[in-house]
């Protein structure tokens, strides 16, 4: 039997990478692991908390964001000293990092400028522009950070290249959309009833819009790569989403279309041929999760639908209704579907199999990740509601519970920008006595 030999690339920093690989076989050293830990803490924990504190106009917004910037700066420097695994450059993680770094420090610069409260007509115009930028960029930062973490995970293993790119990109993008949809559903379920009343549209309208957009994008992208089975899957989502949009075009109309989509898609995943046994088991469980979500949506439509009370004098004075438990189960299953989708490409499953993990262990890990995402989302929503309740108490003269009185900082995230230049929140309590109750 002839000996197999690998040819290696030539160049500084890539001489241990085989010509058909995109990373070397060396282990990941402590510098890269430290980089990963710091960046995950900064973009997945600190910055989202800081964003909510900014939305709630808390004085802790700036300290949290400064702490996140410090972690980002340290995490940015650490990979320069690593000496373990080599990575082929340019790669998408390193390229996107430059743009992300510029956006983070532009966000910090705009926040610093707004905190100076410079007077004058010209500064007022600049403030108005920067307030909108700071608000939009602040809300997009968790999304951009999540995207960069996905790029980092794939780059660290040398995945998503060549023929594997379309399948990998489809799994990661679809999974991320599902996780984002689940998070948005949790937020709307808890604290979005007023917004739903104001728009007059049911949640199914926005769910069907997301389904139609996702199906259109998936069908068009897979057509270019001649993946006709995935094209059929995308066309089904596209057409079903359009049908759902038509059914929910009137005010406060529900539709079973999202449930139908999940039931049929779950059946498709459970029956679709896979390259190996682990992939088959994983897709079978993913199909069961999707069919469970579809069934729960049917039950929620049939027995637990909350009709909007149109007899209220105004939207603001409508009584708040407690969310149904079934709505949280549905949102959780959407998040689970997203997590499984992200880790379901064959290359990723081969790596897990190499590590000695079977599909049962993987499912427990993925359900735990989904639980963590949902728990963190619930904590952020509770933090926001606590800050808003404290603000209402302050306005009513019942005390100041940690809300900033500086309108320049109140408008950092794009809220109340029209009044931020003309009005100031007047506080009469002792700042040293301010506390935050969650």
Automatic annotation (TrEMBL):
Where is the segment annotated Disordered?
Answer: 419-438
Q: Which residues cross the membrane?
A: 31-54, 66-84, 96-116, 136-152, 172-191, 255-271, 283-305, 326-344, 364-384
Q: What is this protein called?
A: Cytochrome b561 domain-containing protein
* InterPro entries assigned: DUF2427 (IPR018825), YTP1_C (IPR018827)
Q: Which organism is it from?
A: Cladophialophora psammophila CBS 110553
Record key words, sorted? Membrane, Transmembrane, Transmembrane helix
Annotated Pfam families: DUF2427, Ytp1
Domain DUF2427: start-end pairs: 17-115
Q: Does the keyword Transcription regulation apply?
A: no
- UniProt entry tagged with the keyword Methyltransferase: no
Question: What's the superkingdom here?
Answer: Eukaryota
Q: Which residues form the Protein YTP1-like C-terminal domain?
A: 145-384
């Amino acid at each position: 039997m002839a000996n197999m030999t690998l040819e290696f690339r030539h160049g500084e920093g890539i001489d241990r990478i085989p010509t058909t690989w995109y990373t070397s076989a060396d282990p990941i050293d402590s510098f890269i692991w430290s980089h990963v830990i710091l960046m995950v803490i900064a973009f997945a924990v600190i910055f989202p908390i800081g964003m909510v504190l900014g939305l709630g106009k808390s004085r802790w917004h700036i300290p949290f964001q400064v702490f996140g910037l410090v972690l980002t700066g340290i995490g940015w420097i650490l990979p320069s000293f690593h000496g373990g695994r080599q990575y082929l450059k340019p790669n998408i993680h390193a390229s996107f990092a430059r743009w992300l770094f510029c956006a983070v420090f532009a966000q910090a610069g705009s926040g610093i400028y707004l905190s100076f409260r410079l007077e004058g007509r010209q500064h007022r115009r600049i403030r108005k522009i920067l307030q909108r930028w700071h608000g939009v960029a602040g809300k997009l930062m968790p999304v951009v950070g999540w995207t960069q973490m996905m790029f980092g995970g794939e780059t660290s293993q040398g995945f998503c290249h060549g023929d594997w790119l379309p399948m990998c990109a489809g799994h990661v993008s679809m999974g991320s959309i599902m996780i984002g949809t689940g998070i948005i559903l949790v937020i709307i379920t808890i604290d979005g009833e007023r917004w739903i009343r104001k728009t007059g549209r049911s949640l199914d309208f926005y769910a069907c819009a997301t389904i139609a957009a996702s199906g259109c994008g998936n069908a068009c992208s897979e057509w270019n790569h001649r993946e006709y089975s995935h094209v059929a899957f995308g066309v089904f989502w596209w057409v079903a989403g359009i049908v759902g949009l038509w059914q929910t075009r009137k005010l406060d109309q529900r539709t079973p279309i999202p449930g139908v989509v999940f039931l049929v898609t779950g059946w498709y995943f459970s029956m679709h041929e896979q390259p190996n046994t682990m992939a088959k088991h994983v897709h079978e469980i993913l199909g069961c999760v999707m069919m469970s979500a579809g069934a729960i949506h049917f039950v929620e439509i049939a027995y637990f639908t909350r009709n909007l009370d149109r007899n209220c004098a105004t939207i603001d004075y409508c009584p708040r209704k407690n969310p149904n438990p079934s709505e949280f189960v549905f949102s959780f299953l959407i998040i689970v579907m997203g997590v499984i989708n992200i880790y379901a490409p064959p290359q990723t499953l081969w790596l897990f199999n190499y590590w000695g993990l079977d599909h049962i262990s993987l499912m427990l890990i993925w359900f735990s990740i989904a639980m963590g995402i949902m728990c963190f989302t619930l904590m952020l929503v509770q933090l926001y509601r606590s800050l808003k309740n404290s603000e209402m108490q302050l306005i009513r003269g019942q005390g100041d519970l940690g809300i900033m009185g500086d309108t320049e900082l109140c408008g950092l995230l794009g809220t109340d920008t029209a009044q931020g230049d003309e009005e100031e929140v007047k506080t009469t309590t002792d700042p040293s006595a301010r506390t935050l109750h969650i």
